[in-house]
């Protein structure tokens, strides 16, 4: 992985830049013209200075022409103005280019994530996507903007050396050779920067994950009084990350001084060549030295840009590798539209998260339209996994799951999503109004339906007690609400779309007895119209169920009516006993 990423570094950047090749070419053109104008200006101004020193009233001959001093100064002024205009145009192109790269990278990454399968999204370490979208995209953009600086420096160098060749071919040729040698000497250093930077990018992602995890444990951290341990852990992770950054920066920073040392040696060589070859014209010698020094400054910019690209390109590689990974496991979709969502028929359903460790095996059942089915079983038995399979979020490893007579994998995802709903164990709300949280981006749901759903979920009076009712803005993740209110709001969200299939994963865990009874009544009233699957730990939640499925160790050990289970299922009997309900007493 590491070597693939490193070796692919410049290729990813090249591919990215080829998408903007028109603008890169325009930028290159403006840099070249700007540098050419600057070189001509320098040649001209040196000529004027030398002419003044020699008491002459004409400059040159430079590039085969001799010009009056006043005309030269006027020409110099024009050159400067045109150069300024060309440079400002270049700055504008470069700013647009980098802004577009940032926007495009964020778009590509977030779209790829949103289109990836649930299994891929679920496996994504906490905090990594945010870090990729922010810090990594910034570094990738930096690589592109540094590339544009490099292009400007390279073409300026070419323009200067071209002008130098026209003024004095021998001296400029010597500078050219020296610069090529310096560039070659620095190649291994840049390679090393790229390798270290790839490792540094990985360390940043690990840091982001660890910090997010620690952040999510704030309540526990305070309760158990382990703040110092957390601070130490953050320091430790911080140290590991900054250490890799330090190495990259040391190498990147040393590129400049090494270049300067080698470049001044090149100046010495250039001047030595000039001394040996000789030149009778003072103006020419002055102009060549000025051009050489300016060339070296552009050369230094080029070397720094190359170092910076080497340090930033691996972040782009990481983004690219992540996008590829997301794209490799897209969310399943088909184009079949069944007559209805139900019946749901599972045949020999098998699923495993990790190879060789089945979370569900050999599960077969049929759930008919309007059935209310409870799912019970010990912790870790596979109930939530079954719920995710029923929702079409996970695909069975073996066996099949049919919805309305068609394999769920073939069913059109938009059609399916409009007809199903889910209430998770942890109600997930977002920063927005109460109504927005219930509607949940489904624009077709009317205000009336939102209100009705709130009533069904027994949360209407809570909403009406809020300062702005349905328009009240909830804090981050609905932090203004209690756990029970959040849970009822997420039940309202599920009911608002009028689903044909409603799957609930422990929907009443945060509710008091009265609220739970009201939700139970609401779910009971759906009987015959909506197919309901409820994963429940509270036995009272199961009162409304036609049948109860018992899952133990990934296998379905029973699926019958409560009265039969009371006789046949040990798990059910034990669960009833724990709930304080005797087998005989309940009927
Ligand atoms: N994302 C995952 N990666 C790897 N293993 C997983 C993952 N999610 C669940 N498992 C494993 O799959 C098995 C079934 O988990 P599942 O969450 O379906 O159980 P559950 O019956 O819903 O448990 P609980 O009642 O505690 O919520 C467990 O052994 C669990 O460790």
Please give a structural write-up.
- It contains 21 helices and 14 strands.
- The chain is an alpha/beta fold and 587 residues long.
- It has two domains: 2-103 and 114-325, ABC transporter type 1, transmembrane domain (ABC transporter transmembrane region fold, Up-down Bundle), CATH 1.20.1560.10; 344-426 and 499-586, Rossmann fold.
Write the SSE topology:
Blueprint: H1 2-7, H2 9-19, H3 21-54, E1 58-62, E2 65-68, H4 69-115, H5 118-123, H6 128-167, H7 169-185, H8 187-216, H9 218-223, H10 227-277, H11 282-328, E3 344-354, E4 357-367, E5 372-376, H12 383-390, E6 398-403, E7 406-407, H13 413-419, E8 420-423, E9 432-433, H14 434-439, H15 447-456, H16 460-464, E10 473-474, H17 483-496, E11 501-505, H18 513-525, E12 531-535, E13 547-552, E14 555-560, H19 562-568, H20 570-578, H21 583-586
Parallel strand pairs: 5-12, 5-13, 8-11, 11-12
Antiparallel strand pairs: 1-2, 3-4, 3-6, 6-7, 9-10, 13-14
Helix pairs in contact: 2-11, 3-4, 3-6, 3-11, 4-6, 4-11, 6-7, 6-8, 6-11, 7-10, 7-11, 8-10, 8-11, 10-11, 15-17
The structure holds adenosine-5'-triphosphate.
Structure at a glance:
Keywords: ATP-binding, Membrane, Nucleotide-binding, Transmembrane, Transmembrane helix. By secondary structure, the protein is of the alpha/beta class.
Q: CATH-wise, what's the superfamily of the largest domain?
A: ABC transporter type 1, transmembrane domain
Low-pLDDT windows of residues = 1-9, 581-587
Under CATH at level 1, the class of the largest domain stands as Mainly Alpha
Helix content: 55-70%
The coarse overall form would be: elongated
């Amino acid at each position: 992985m590491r070597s693939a990423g490193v070796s692919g570094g410049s290729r990813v950047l090249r591919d990215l830049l080829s998408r903007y090749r028109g603008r890169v070419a325009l930028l290159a053109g403006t840099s070249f013209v700007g540098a050419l104008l600057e070189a001509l200006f320098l040649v001209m101004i040196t000529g004027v200075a030398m002419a003044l020193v020699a008491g002459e009233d004409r400059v040159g001959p430079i590039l085969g022409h001799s010009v009056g001093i006043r005309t030269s100064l006027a020409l110099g002024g024009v050159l400067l103005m045109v150069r300024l205009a060309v440079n400002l145009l270049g700055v504008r192109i470069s700013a647009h280019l980098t802004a577009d790269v940032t926007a495009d990278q964020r778009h590509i990454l977030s779209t790829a994530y949103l289109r990836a399968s649930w299994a891929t999204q679920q496996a994504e370490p906490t905090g990594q996507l945010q870090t990729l979208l922010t810090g990594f995209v910034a570094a990738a953009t930096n690589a592109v903007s540094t590339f544009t600086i490099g292009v400007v420096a390279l073409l300026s160098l070419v323009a200067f050396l071209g002008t130098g060749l026209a003024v004095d071919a021998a001296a400029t040729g010597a500078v050219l050779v020296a610069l090529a040698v310096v560039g070659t000497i620095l190649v291994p250093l840049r390679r090393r920067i790229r390798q270290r930077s790839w490792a540094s990018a990985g360390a940043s992602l690990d840091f982001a994950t660890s910090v997010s995890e620690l952040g999510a444990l704030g309540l526990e951290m305070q309760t158990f009084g382990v703040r110092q341990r957390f601070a130490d852990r953050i320091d430790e992770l911080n140290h590991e990350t900054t250490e890799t950054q330090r190495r990259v920066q040391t190498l990147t920073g040393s590129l400049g001084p090494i270049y300067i040392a080698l470049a001044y040696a090149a100046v010495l060589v250039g001047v030595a060549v000039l001394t040996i070859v000789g030149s009778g014209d003072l103006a020419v010698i002055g102009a060549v030295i000025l051009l050489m020094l300016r060339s070296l400054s552009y050369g230094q910019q080029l070397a720094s840009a190359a170092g910076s690209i080497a340090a930033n390109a691996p972040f782009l590689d990481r983004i690219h590798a992540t996008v590829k990974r997301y794209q490799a496991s897209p969310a399943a979709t088909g184009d079949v539209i069944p007559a209805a969502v139900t019946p749901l028929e599972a045949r020999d359903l098998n699923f495993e998260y990790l190879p060789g460790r089945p979370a569900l095996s050999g599960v077969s059942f049929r759930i008919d339209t309007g059935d209310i089915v409870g799912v019970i079983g010990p912790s870790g038995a596979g109930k939530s996994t079954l719920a995710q399979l029923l929702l079409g979020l996970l695909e069975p490893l073996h066996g099949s799951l049919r919805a309305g007579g068609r394999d769920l994998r073939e069913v059109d995802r938009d059609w399916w999503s409009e007809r199903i709903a889910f209430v998770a164990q942890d109600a997930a709300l977002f920063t927005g109004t109460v109504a927005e949280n219930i509607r949940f981006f489904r624009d077709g749901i009317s205000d009336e339906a939102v209100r009705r759903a709130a009533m069904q979920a027994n949360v209407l009076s809570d909403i009406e007690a809020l300062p702005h009712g349905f328009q009240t803005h909830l804090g981050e993740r609905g932090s203004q609400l209690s756990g029970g209110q959040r849970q009822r709001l997420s039940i309202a969200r599920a009911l608002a779309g009028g689903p044909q299939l409603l799957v609930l994963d422990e929907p009443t865990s945060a509710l008091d007895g009265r609220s739970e009874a009201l939700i139970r009544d609401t779910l009971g009233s759906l009987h015959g119209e909506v197919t309901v699957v409820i994963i429940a730990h509270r036995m009272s939640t199961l009162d409304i169920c036609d049948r109860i499925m018992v899952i133990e160790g990934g296998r379905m050990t029973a699926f019958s009516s409560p009265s039969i289970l009371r006789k046949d299922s040990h798990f059910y009997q034990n669960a009833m006993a724990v709930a304080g309900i005797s087998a005989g007493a309940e009927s």
